[in-house]
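During the second half of the funding period, the structural biology subgroup turned its attention to how the target accommodates small molecules. The most pressing case was calcium ion, which had performed well in the primary screen but for which no bound structure existed. We therefore specified the complex as follows and requested a full 3D prediction, including the ligand pose.
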Amino acid sequence: MKRKLIVKLLVVALVISLGVLVLPSIIGAISLSGEYDSHSGAININGTTTIELAVATPGDGKFIQLDVGSWIILKFPGDYLAEPDGTAAADLRIVIFDALFPADAEISVSLDGSSWTVIGVFSDTANIDIDLESIGAVKFVKVDQGNFYIDQAYPNLGFDLDAVVALNAGIPPNTKSDILINSGVPGKGLENAPGLDKPFNPKSQAGENAGKK
Ligand SMILES: [Ca+2]
Ligand SMILES: [Ca+2]
């Protein structure tokens, strides 16, 4: 009877510990802004001093405007990805500044920064919501003015970008364990265990007795 109870408790403990590892990436929908990665061509900075600051935060009055032929890439910080949430709801949002001086740009996404999936060409007259169910998790977002539409009366005022937001940001479970191992958590016990820093005694019976208790 006791053994059955222990097995049951172990199963419960296992389910709980797995849940702690897996659930945050499924239900832990946190909203996270992308950060500047790279760009090409001329970019107009509005309301701030650097491109990095201009695109770091949505709704802060700071934004960029792409010139003809320019592009910018943002990425999600650390090990975070914009992940599909398992529904048709948007998972990624391209936040524009305002609807004035309309311009179009091509939006692409990538997990590795080298292989890109083109989402489409969009106007910067409203925020662009993207569902990632058919694409999967992404790390990088590219906004490319290229030769897409710019109001000819204002040729320098291309697509205006305020920020890029992962509406369902998460860290893949395997990455979580990598972080734990790299942070030294499992090794801490070994490092601090008494006796492990002493020289090995060949006459010790510890090796033979190990695991007999
Ligand atoms: Ca979705
Ligand atoms: Ca901004």
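Two results from this model are relevant to the next phase. The CA atoms of residues 58 and 111 lie 22 Å apart. Residues 28-170 form a domain with the Jelly Rolls fold (CATH 2.60.120.260).
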